[in-house]
Amino acid sequence: MFPLAASGGAAAGTGGLISFLVPLIIMFAVFYFLLIRPQKKKQQTRNNMLNALQKGDKIVTIGGLHGKIVELADDTVVLLVNDATKLTFDRSAISHRVEAEAQS
User: Fold this and answer.
1) Among candidates 20, 8, 93, 24, which has minimal Cα distance to 59?
2) Are residues 1 and 43 in the same domain?
3) What percent of the chain has pLDDT over 90?
4) For this UniProt entry, which segments traverse the membrane (predicted)?
5) 99 and 57 part of one domain
6) Which among 67, 42, 39, 68 has a CA at the least distance from the CA of 55?
7) What's residue 101's pLDDT?
8) Residue 1, pLDDT score
9) pLDDT (tens digit, 9 = 90+) per residue, 70-85?
10) What's the mean pLDDT in 44-69?
């Protein structure tokens, strides 16, 4: 009597484990493709933009300040805000580069 009960319980346990793991795997795949992967792609695009900055580029900071890059260092950027004002920012404080067509 005990061997039959043990073998029937083991088969039900394996099926229960599979039915538990499949939804978890599907849920992880959905999170990966909808949240993690797009965020990594966006971060990579931002890093490429920050590494491609050059003197003379017109940029906008995260705070909304518009300026032109006059000096670049590894982790800082000096912006010319108007004819005489120069401000130093961290490179990570740059939001985006302003294209020449967008200004006109």
Assistant:
1) 93
2) yes
3) 72
4) 12-36
5) yes
6) 68
7) 64
8) 47
9) 999 999 999 999 999 9
10) 95
Are the C-beta atoms of 89 and 81 separated by less than 8 Å? no
- Same domain for 44 and 1: yes
Do 46 and 57 share a domain, yes or no? no
**Cα distance between residue 2 and residue 45, in whole Å:** 62
Distance set, CA 37 to CA 28, 32, 41 (Å): 12, 6, 6
Give the end-to-end CA distance of the chain in Å, rounded to a whole number. 87
Q: Would you say the C-alpha torsion 86, 90, 93, 98 has a positive or negative sign?
A: positive
Q: In which domain, by residue range, is 27 found?
A: 1-52
How far is 47 from 63, CA to CA, in rounded Å?
18
Work out how many domains the chain is built from and give that number. Answer: 2
